[in-house]
Amino acid sequence: MKTYVITLIFALLFITVGFASGSAEDNMGSASNGSMSMGKDDTMMAPAAADFYSTKGLEPRVVPFITESAAEKLAVKGPTIYFFAASWCPNCQATMKHLRQNVSEIPRDVTIVLVNYDTQTALKQKYGITSQHAFVQINPEGKQIAIWAGSSTVDDILKHIVRGGM
After folding, report:
1. pLDDT at residue 37 greater than cutoff 60
2. What does the DSSP 8-state code read for residue 83?
3. Which residue, of 3, 44, 85, 94, is most buried by count of CB atoms within 10 Å of its CB?
């Protein structure tokens, strides 16, 4: 419920800022192309959720969350990290941008599983995740090996990985 209220407040804020900065027609036009406009400045655009959670071009190093079982199978092969991200989160957006630009820096045995923070309630509860932009390394049984928040670069994510933490 708390997440829903916060999301609603952000949505209302984005709509208010967008309409205050330009005509309704300009803002609606921007929204129809897959992004939500916050004004005429392109640097102020939040990605559409479908675009944000797309891992096209990032696989097999960054993959979408499908099931816990699928993620656990990845953990048999090497370090597997859940990245709890929200499309509306500026820090998550920065991390995703860096991942897209530097995916080749992720070692072949490491997999980052992109988890939709807003929809995966049970998974958040399992690991005690209370805010977006959180990371959880799991073992093949799905048990938490490490947990942290705030990484925005590939290097920072990699430095938190526990090797041999099976």
Report:
1. no
2. E
3. 85
For the whole prediction, is pTM greater than 0.85?
A: no
Residue 116 to residue 38: CA distance in whole angstroms: 22
Q: Domain limits at 29?
A: 2-46
Report residue 106 CA to chain centroid gap: 16
Residues 61 and 139 in one domain: yes
Please give the backbone phi and psi of residue 110, each rounded to the nearest 5 degrees, phi first: -100, 135
Same domain, residue pair 85 and 151: yes
| Tally of structural domains, the chain | 2
Indicate the SS3 state at residue 6.
helix
Calpha distance 11→25 (Å, rounded): 18
The verdict on 62 and 41 lying in the same domain is no
160 within 8 A of 151, measured Cβ to Cβ:
yes
Band (pLDDT 50/70/90 cuts) for residue 95 is: very high
Q: Check: CB of residue 46 under 8 Å from CB of residue 38.
A: yes
Does the pLDDT of residue 146 top 70, yes or no?
yes
Distances, alpha carbon 79 to alpha carbons 63, 130, 141, 144, in Å: 13, 23, 12, 11
Q: Which residues contact 21 (CB under 8 A, 6 or more apart)?
A: 27, 38, 39, 40
What is the helix, strand, coil percentage profile of the chain, to 5?
45, 20, 35
